[in-house]
Structure formats: C-alpha cells, structure tokens
Amino acid sequence: MYPPRTKPRNGLGRCDDCDRAVLWCTTTANRVPIAIDPPEDPTGNQAIRIDPEGRYWARQLTQARPAVETREVLRRPHIASCPIARSRAAARRRTTSRSRTGARPTRWQR
Fold first, then answer.
1. pTM of the predicted model over 0.70
2. How far is residue 109 from each of residues 52, 65, 102, 105, measured CA to CA in Å?
3. Which helix (H) or strand (E) holds 11?
C-alpha cells in the first residue's frame, strides 16, 4: 500500500514528472487533485475558482455549463503540455489497445 499523503495537494506546487510549476486544484466532480498550468489561457477548458478558505477548485467546461461563471478563470490542464506525462499516456494507449478484452469465446464460438 502507498503511504497516505499528509497534506492534500492544493495550491502552487511542482509536477512530479517534469518538475515544472503547476497549480494543484481539486476537481468538483470527483474531488481528486489535478495539475493545471498556472498562466491564464482563454483557450483552456478548465474553469478555476478559489473558495473563501483559499482552496483551488477546477471544473471542466461541458455542454451543460459551457461558459465561465463569476470569479472563474480559464486555464489548461498540465497534462496537455507536460512532455513526460504525454509520452507516458501515449505508451499506455499503445499497450492497452493490443490486449484482449471481454470474455473468452466458448468452444462453439471459435
């Protein structure tokens, strides 16, 4: 088992892979930490807001809520610009597509 984190990731920090500065936010949907690039980007798809306690919250723009609401800023997720994370994700896609999924066929289906 992995040791539990002593402090939840929220606020300014560093990427575990490329060591660039990132903004750690908590997603509103699943309450998991996500790395966001710090500069504002009008083409981004993550709406970031800060609550009164100083925690950063991220929500993805969807068809249900496509616009930025009050006190939200658009930014891009860090995985879009992290060279190591992108190559790792591409390798994961290459290896998972080769594996078989589903139930094995029975004798009469072969």
1. yes
2. 61, 46, 14, 6
3. strand 11-14
Q: pLDDT for 44-97, tens place per residue?
A: 999 999 999 999 999 999 999 999 999 999 999 998 888 887 777 677 766 654
Q: Give 86-95 pLDDT, tens digit per residue.
A: 777 677 766 6
Give Dmax over CA atoms of the chain in angstroms. Answer: 63
d(CA 42, CA 47): 10
How far apart are alpha carbons 40 and 1 in whole angstroms? 37
Residue 22 is encoded by which pair of tokens?
A: 């990132």
| φ, ψ at 109 (rounded to 5°) | -90, -10
